[in-house]
Design brief:
377 residues; Rossmann fold; eight-stranded mixed beta sheet; seven-stranded mixed beta sheet; 32% helix
Length: 377
Amino acid sequence: MHCYVAKERLPGEIRAALTPATGETLVKLGLEVTAENNLGSSSDYADEAYEKAGVKMTGDHAGNLTGADLVLGVRKPSPETIADLKPGAVLMSHLDPFNEPELVKQLATAGISAISLEMVPRTTLAQKMDVLSSQMNLAGYSAVIQAAARIRKSLPMMMTPAGTISPCRVFVIGVGVAGLQAIATAKRLGARVEAFDTRPVVEEQVRSLGAKFVKIDLGETGQTDQGYAKELTPEQLQMQRDGMAKVCAMSDIVITTAKLFGRKAPIVVTKDMVAGMQLGSVIVDLAVEGGGNVEGSKLDEEVITDNGVIIMGERCMEAAVSYHATQVFAANLSALIEHFWDDEAKVMKIDLEDEIMQGCLITHGGKVVHERFQDLN
């Protein structure tokens, strides 16, 4: 079985779907692994390291793409890439199926077995295959580091002969994987940290990290069976904004991580809330690619408001630590392949009875097979 991994074509995307370590693992399974020249160079993985692991490096992108049985990627493929894949090939990458119906239809028509990495079930068994968790963990860390580098204040309290420097106040909105790592990182840097989430169940986790949980009575809330916060009503959203406005006004750094799986991210920080913040404060919108949590944030841009608040809207905050982002992303893919590997036939099985495969396989055998996208057939 021939596996091909190409460099990402999206401008600014420097992560890769393979490392020398995972390449060695896949070669030992029995895969013939080929990667495009300079695959990991932007993340400090040298071609020589891949070759030492048994990966063949190539400059023939088109030829290897056309002949591959298994194609690994980070970002969703272009229509041109899909057209070059052979029928029956397995594609593993982000696909954004909720927002890309035409892409899903094209994959089905082309006869591709397409695995959407963001659809891997969030179960104990699939934990080591969960790219969303591995990447958001690093995004939460990077958000704090990038904000700390941008703000013109030190984060920890300092006792100096010239007086006491007060600690920065950091407010984290959304206590999922990214939020928890942001809290932990900000605390390690000495900041005073507060956090809010619509799910009261996470209060204990916030407190265990040494942060204060901001309580806002929103009435009945909860989480989905996948662990995501349930969508709030317009009335609940307004109550949330009113309660958070005072905290934002006192904060030096605000990090928003509120995402709704398969839907547009909710606006949780309005222009009025931003207008009430201090000159030089920094907001990091980690949901900007999904529509944004902050009114006025712009994808891949830094916005400075009229009152001097800095809004950071980087698409992929984890790319700032792309060496480790690539490491864990590639490990997630390797674990997924190993789980479905048939050691006798030396192929990756498409097991339609497996719970993990049912959760992430979008197209197979010329049709859309995932139950949530049946209307695309």
